[in-house]
Design goal:
459 residues; alpha/beta; Aminopeptidase; Glucose Oxidase, domain 1; eleven-stranded mixed β-sheet; three-stranded mixed β-sheet; 16 helices
Length: 459
C-alpha cells in the first residue's frame, strides 16, 4: 500500500511538474513576442494623441470612454462594455501666484485637485515657511492665523516610489493641518524629484473637522526660491489666486474587455490601469502606460490559438486620481468576488519591471515557481515576501478578499514627470514598455492557465 501511494504521489508530482513546464513554455513565448514589439506603445500613442488629458468627469473623459470601447473591440476582446458610476468632478480655472514683498517675483504653481478657490480678488498675506512637514504639525493651534502656510520639504528619489509614499501627507493632509492652525491658504513644494520649474498637482483630502482653505503646489525651483528668501530674515508676502469649481454627479466609466477562459470562464483574473489623468500633461506615464501595458498583455493572451483556462479581464478604471473607480468596480462585482481569483494594477509608469511579488503561498506552487526562469531574461526578481497591495483601483477587491499580484517597475525617474505638464508620450521608452508588457503577459497567463487557488494557499 505504501509503495502504491508513493507511486501515485510521484506520478502526481511528475504531472504537476509537466503542467508547470507547459505553462512556462507558453509564458516564455508570450514574453518573447512582447519583447519583439508589443501592442502597448501603439495603444498608448493612440490614447495620448487622440484624447490627451482626461480628468474624471470631464468631457475628455467621455471621449476616453468611447475610445476605450472602440479600442478593446478593435483589439478583439470579448464582452466589451462600459460600467457607469458618478464622481464629483473638479474643474481647474485660472491660477496665479507671486511674491509681492520683499523681492517681487512670479511663482509657478498648480492648484491641488479638490481645492476650494480663493475669493475672486485673490488672497494676499504673509507666509509662514516650514522646512519640514513635522515642523508644521508642531506649530500651535492659532499660530498661523491670517497667514499662508508653506512647506518646502523635498522628496527623496527611490527606485520603488517609497519616497513618494513617505511624503504624500504633505499634499493630501497638509491643507487641513494648516487650516487647523489658522492658515488662510496653503502651498507646498511639489511631490517631485524633478529639477525643472514645472509644478506637480495631485489630490488633497480635506478633513471633515477643519476649514477648507485654498491649496496649491509650488514647483521645486520656486519652493527653493522661497527658502532662499526666508534666509534673508525679512517677512515674505504672497498674492495667490486660484479659480475652480466642482460638478456633482458627473458621469464616469470603467471600461471592460475580456479574453474568455476556455474551461473556467467564470473564474476571472482582473488586471488594468486607470484611464483618467490630470490636466497639465497628456497622462502618458500616469496612467496611460498602465492602461497600455495591461491591455497589451491581455491582447497577447487573447491572440493565443488556445486561450488559458480562466478568463483574463482588463479594466480601464475611470477615476483613480480623484478616487471612486475602484470602489465602484468592487461594489458592482461584489457578488462575483469569490470567482475573482487574482487582481493586479499597473500604475507606476512604463517600466522596466524589476521585481514581482506573488500572493502569499504562490511561490511554492510549481506553476509560479517555474516563472522565475521565464522572468530571469527580463531581469525581473521574484520577491520572497508576498504582495500586500497592487494599486488603489484594485484595493476594493482586495478588501473583499481577492488576492493581488504586484509588479514593480523602476520608478527612479517616474516622479520627475507624473502629475505635471511633462507627462507626455516622448518620456516613454517603447522598449521599456515592451519589457513591462512581457512580464505582465507571462505572469497573468501562468495564473490564468493554472488551477491555483490563491485564496486557499494563503491560509
Amino acid at each position: 500500500m505504501r509503495t502504491r501511494l508513493a507511486a501515485v504521489g510521484a506520478l502526481l508530482s511528475l504531472t504537476a511538474a509537466a503542467h508547470a513546464q507547459s505553462i512556462a513554455d507558453v509564458s516564455a513565448q508570450l514574453r518573447d513576442k512582447a519583447l519583439a514589439g508589443s501592442p502597448a506603445f501603439p495603444i498608448l500613442e493612440s490614447l495620448t494623441t487622440e484624447i490627451g488629458p482626461r480628468p474624471a468627469g470631464s468631457p475628455a473623459q467621455k471621449r476616453a470612454m468611447e475610445w476605450g470601447l472602440a479600442k478593446l473591440t478593435a483589439l478583439g476582446f470579448q464582452n466589451v462594455h462600459a460600467e457607469p458610476f458618478t464622481v464629483t468632478a473638479w474643474v481647474r480655472g485660472p491660477e496665479a501666484a507671486e511674491v509681492v514683498a520683499p523681492f517681487p517675483q512670479k511663482l509657478a504653481i498648480l492648484g491641488l485637485g479638490g481645492s476650494v478657490p480663493t475669493p475672486k480678488e485673490g488672497i494676499e498675506a504673509e507666509i509662514v515657511l516650514f522646512h519640514t512637514y513635522a515642523d508644521l504639525l508642531a506649530a500651535p493651534v492659532g499660530s498661523l492665523a491670517g497667514k499662508i502656510a508653506v512647506v518646502t520639504q523635498p522628496m527623496v528619489r527611490t527606485q520603488t516610489g517609497e519616497g513618494y509614499g513617505a511624503i504624500n501627507p504633505v499634499r493630501t493632509s497638509g491643507p487641513s493641518e494648516a487650516a487647523r492652525r489658522g492658515a488662510i491658504a496653503y502651498l507646498h513644494r511639489s511631490l517631485s524629484t524633478a529639477e525643472n520649474r514645472l509644478p506637480h498637482t495631485g489630490a488633497l483630502r480635506y478633513a471633515p473637522d477643519a476649514p477648507k482653505i485654498p491649496a496649491a503646489a509650488l514647483s521645486v525651483a520656486d519652493a527653493e526660491l522661497l527658502d532662499h528668501m526666508a534666509a534673508r530674515g525679512q517677512p515674505i508676502r504672497i498674492r495667490l489666486s486660484l479659480d475652480s469649481h466642482t460638478v456633482p454627479n458627473a458621469p464616469a466609466w470603467n471600461i471592460v474587455g475580456e479574453a474568455t477562459g476556455r474551461e473556467k470562464p467564470d473564474e476571472v483574473i482582473v488586471i488594468g490601469g486607470h484611464l483618467d489623468s490630470w490636466d497639465p500633461g497628456t497622462g502618458a506615464i500616469d496612467d496611460g502606460a498602465g492602461v497600455s501595458i495591461t491591455t497589451g498583455a491581455a491582447k497577447l493572451i487573447n491572440d493565443l490559438p488556445r486561450h488559458p483556462r480562466r478568463t483574463v479581464r482588463v479594466v480601464m478604471f475611470g477615476s483613480e486620481e480623484m478616487g471612486g473607480a475602484g470602489e465602484a468596480y468592487a461594489a458592482r462585482h461584489k457578488d462575483e468576488v469569490a470567482k475573482i481569483v487574482l487582481a493586479g494594477e499597473s500604475d507606476e509608469g512604463p517600466g522596466p519591471v524589476w521585481s514581482v511579488q506573488y500572493p502569499k503561498g504562490a511561490l511554492a506552487t510549481p506553476a509560479m515557481k517555474a516563472m522565475s526562469g521565464v522572468l530571469a531574461p527580463l531581469k525581473v526578481y521574484v520577491g520572497f515576501t508576498p504582495a500586500t497591495n497592487s494599486g488603489s483601483d484594485v484595493e476594493g477587491l482586495q478588501i473583499l478578499g481577492v488576492p493581488v499580484i504586484d509588479l514593480h517597475p523602476d520608478a527612479t525617474r517616474y516622479f520627475d514627470i507624473h502629475h505635471s505638464a511633462d507627462d507626455t508620450l516622448d518620456k516613454v521608452d517603447p522598449k521599456a514598455l515592451d519589457q513591462s508588457t512581457a512580464a505582465w503577459a507571462a505572469l497573468i497567463y501562468a495564473a490564468a492557465e493554472s488551477d491555483i487557488d490563491f485564496r486557499a494557499i494563503a491560509k
